[in-house]
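Sample entry follows:

_____
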Amino acid sequence: MKKTIQYLYIAIIFTAIWGCSPDAIQNYVEEDIIADQGGVVVTESGITLEIPAGAFENDGEVFLGKTGEEPSTVPNPELTVVGEPFTIKLPVDTLLTPLKLSFPLPTDSLTVYNSVFLLFNGISNFPFAYEIVDGKVVVVIDTINWEDISTKSGNKELKGLIVRLINDKVHIDERFLGIKEVSVVSGEVKYNEPKDITSSSRILLFVHGLIGDPSGWEEYIKKIYQEPNMLNYTNIWTYGYHSKQSIRIRGAELMSLLNDYRKGANPTIHIVAHSMGGLVSRSMIEISGGKGIVDKLITLGSPHLGSPAEKFRSILSFLVDVANGFRYLFGNESNSTDHYVSFYINTLSAKDLNPESQFIMEMKKLDKPPIPYYTIACKDNGSFDAIYNTPSDGVVTVNSANGVNGAEFNSHIQVLPIPVPHLKMRTFEHENALVNASNYNMYLIVKRYLKNQIPDVTTGDVSNITSTTVTCSGDVVWAIDIEEKLTKCGVCWSKSQNPTVEDSKITEANGNYLQTFTSNVTGLSPNTTYYIRAFATNAEGTDYGDPKAFTTLSDSDIAYGSLTDSRDGSVYKTITIGGKEWFAENLKYLPSVVGPGTDSRTTACYYVYDYNGTSVSEAKATANYKTYGVLYNWTAAMNGA
């Protein structure tokens, strides 16, 4: 499909297409301009060029009008030049201050939201902001030397274009506006007024970005519907809005709508937002008071540090100047042309997105979000790294997408092997299978952020069973390969079938990341059936592996060795574990005995638990001696006790 452009030829030759009639008696005006005085040049057809004092660095003649040599095509065959171009000739190749160009509106259907204005210098095109005032197109020409290309006379030849979009992507269908309750019926997403909710409701709200509408979330919505119990959400909502108003206004509107539909209830609300929708959501939460009603925010490719329209000027220059440039970047997705031009013109109107805007500067001041925030960035195949000087998704840099101080998680970067993944990061039906795989992985991240992020843990092998000990391993496994800090992990056991951390347990780690661990359990009773399972805990809760049953050995099942203590003739049972021989019962050597109040760093001391005397025979007659043997101080132990 061809895109329609209105064409201007500027330059020092500056050509435009509107207002000049082939039958005009005078097709141009030439006027001398004194640099420190400036001036205004006007043609009979209504083309006007305002030159402020000091805009030129030297005096000279300005030409405004038609030469008859204006071009009628552009390099990209997908674009068609229409109208009558006109030419501007300036006596300089650098502007010290901007010029203002105006000309009659070529068609009533032209608006600042469905077209973009370009200038061409004979080598490349460059976009400029414009307004429509009293039936005229008004363009601010802030540069004529975006490339270092100058004529020998110090003049510059430029051409100007207006690219008309096939679709107006600022205004969305009325059926999407506001908050809608969505459902999936026979594979189709339906949009209706929200149902009544209660404080036990769990709401998932999707917010779109600068261009597009809630339908961009339909593939996500369908996947959520396929999840067990819709991930425990009772309602799925969308918020649709026109992008041409400020982010603050849209944030306040979203807050008002949420209050209207809550009707005093206090449901759980989680928001997933794309692009500028993340900033609209943040404005609602941080500025309009939404922190008291929203519980979690997840953003995909949101420009938290801003996204300058200036960068899109260079990208659009490439798209117009390269034959089949749109297809070079976007393949057969012809509407990507409209999308990218929309991003440029809407970014001009959405002043809040400027990295130096008051809104972005306020967002940057945030030390810690008032509720949990999770950010996800996307990275393209490197097509625009030279323009942004840093990895980006073609629209938003990785640094900007993850630029929230204090977010719960703000370092994930998803790579999509296409030039502008920002436009395609929510689809699972792309012609490139790698894009679908990457987007599904991103969906898994979103899903895990939406769920309580309890880790998945499996119980490993149960081994080395003796009459009193056992070994059990565990594996902490997340749904995707991403680090998540644990509070603790280990094994727990009991004689009941589903042991918990309230029963006996061993904690193997605190504050660690993904891991496999092994626990050695002691102090078990012989010939007893136990149930054991691994557990893992993070800030959201505890997960358990499947319990495994085992039975400790009885004494008769164990092949014991023996060891005779030559000091008193006592014979002890031993057992071989791991190739080493260990005592299977406590040492009972007792040459003397003292009470627990006696100790010495130089003299060996021997104790029997709960005996407070000095008689060896009395101490040996106690039940504790027969069960637990003897306790030794350091000196006694080191002296061969």
Observations:
- The two ends are 94 Å apart (CA to CA).
